[in-house]
Specification:
242 residues, 7 helices, membrane, AdipoR/HlyIII-related, metal-binding
Length: 242
């Protein structure tokens, strides 16, 4: 008697890549937690970021793994959960960056804007009729680029070397989104534009994680001019963590 496979992944490349990245995201979150144990003001932002990573890759990997019939109630439900997690990841990714590298009104305004737009997107996703897929991806991309708006403040805080990591992550996200919108390329049967999107998403998250660990968590703001020397650590570029 021929044996039956115990589990057949509906979308093998997309599901396995994101489930593996979900495992990596758990370890990445633990690393960030360890690095912020002596920095309580930075622990919550990085944990929000880590939780959003785990949620996205777990939701996406599960949705693409389970053998749902396309268009069924279960398929639509898990697709919405997957799309919801994308909004959470975009806002979560920028949370430690905005919380640490910005200050005062800039920090409050951009954090509120990013999370308000993410909440609006999630509300529309669950309350309104289904939007075209290309429009959903375009909204994701637009929300992601909003977090780039305080660019001069980022450069002033950590410098060009650190910002190269942010640009690399943004470029990977953009390449994946463009492939998804244009439905190109088709490399081979079972590996096309959607699989490219998933791999770009995983790679972009790893790059952003390195940016947060190497530059955001250890960042020390410059002392206020009115403060005497020694009150705040001397302003230096954020140290590189090996």
């Amino acid at each position: 008697m021929e044996g039956r496979p115990v589990l057949v992944l509906r979308d093998p490349v997309s599901s396995s890549s994101h489930l593996l990245t979900a495992v990596w995201a758990v370890f990445a979150t633990l690393v960030m937690f360890r690095l912020t144990t002596n920095r309580p003001g930075r622990m919550l932002p990085v944990l929000i970021y880590g939780a959003s990573m785990v949620a996205l890759f777990l939701a996406s990997g599960t949705f693409h793994a389970l053998p749902f019939e396309k268009g069924s109630w279960s398929w639509r439900l898990f697709q919405k959960i997957d799309q919801t997690a994308v909004y959470l990841l975009i806002a979560g990714t920028y949370t430690p960056v905005l919380s640490v590298l910005l200050a005062g009104a800039w920090r409050k305004w951009f954090l509120r804007m990013v999370w308000t737009l993410a909440a609006a997107g999630i509300s529309c996703l669950w309350l309104l009729p289904k939007a075209p897929h290309w429009a959903v991806v375009a909204i994701y991309l637009s929300l992601g680029w909003i977090g780039i708006l305080p660019l001069p403040l980022y450069y002033r805080a950590v410098g060009w070397r650190a910002m190269n990591w942010m640009w690399a992550g943004a470029l990977l996200y953009t390449v994946g989104a463009v492939c998804e919108i244009t439905e190109w390329p088709i490399v081979m049967p079972g590996f096309g534009f959607h699989e490219v999107l998933h791999l770009c998403d995983s790679a972009a998250n790893m790059v952003f994680f390195l940016f947060v660990v190497r530059y955001v968590i250890p960042y020390q703001p410059a002392p206020h001019p009115a403060e005497p020397a020694g009150v705040v650590a001397a302003a230096k570029p954020a140290p590189v963590v090996s």
